[in-house]
Amino acid sequence: MTAQLREMRWWDIDRVLELEKDLFPEDAWSRGMFWSELAHARGPGASRRYVVALEDDQVVGYAGLAAQGAASDSGSEAVGDIQTIAVRRDQWGTGLGGELLTELLRAATAFECAEVMLECRVDNIRAQKLYERFGFEPIGFRRGYYQPGNVDALVMRLTAKPDSGSTGGSTSEQGTEING
Ligand SMILES: CC(C)(COP(=O)(O)OP(=O)(O)OC[C@H]1O[C@@H](n2cnc3c(N)ncnc32)[C@H](O)[C@@H]1OP(=O)(O)O)[C@@H](O)C(=O)NCCC(=O)NCCS
Known about the structure:
By secondary structure, this protein is α+β, with helices and mostly antiparallel strands. It has one domain: 3-Layer(aba) Sandwich (Aminopeptidase). The chain has 5 helices and 7 strands, in the order E-H-H-E-E-H-E-H-E-H-E-E. The protein has helices at residues 13-23, 31-39, 71-74, 96-110, 125-133; strands at residues 4-7, 48-55, 58-68, 78-87, 113-121, 137-146, 151-159. The protein has a 7-stranded mixed β-sheet, with helices on both faces. Strand 4 (78-87), helix 4 and strand 5 form a beta-alpha-beta unit. The two termini are 22 Å apart. The model is unreliable at 174-180 (pLDDT under 50). The site of coenzyme A has 20 residues, from strand 4, helix 4 and helix 5.
């Protein structure tokens, strides 16, 4: 695995959109949605972490996390949300999805998230296996969450380990402070 991860910037959006249309043909994000997310990724009060994976200067994957209710704002605990995660088809099964997820969980720890949530199509078994490997557990469904196909979402949650305060429950992944 040779892809390098770095922060997603606005000049990556065109290449990200190409992958987005291929990987999420029914509900691809628009250019404006990516712009809006990246607008919250820098500066005081930043609440997003978006990364791209680059190989030979090509975008082969990307992922993003949003943190809501940062502890310093409200006194309540922050919650992370996996907004998106995607890997170019020819790289599936190489571990890149795991690398991207590891980076998002690292960010969740930095945002002091007590838990991380995500929604996943019920028929997306590959993604669910990836999340389970990192300790996410299914907690419910959102009926008809994905439109226009009217596909249900499985809601999954990862809770911070009580002893470390970091987000992550799995011990099977290596090389990340989240589990360490
Ligand atoms: C989901 C996705 C990000 C995973 O990326 P990836 O690089 O393949 O991820 P990894 O290689 O780290 O792990 C894939 C895991 O999927 C599972 N998997 C692998 N092959 C599989 C198969 N044929 N069927 C079902 N699950 C499979 C395994 O758990 C595997 O982990 P393992 O190799 O340790 O057993 C990628 O498939 C993707 O971009 N899909 C399209 C976009 C998408 O669905 N995003 C998630 C939205 S919720």
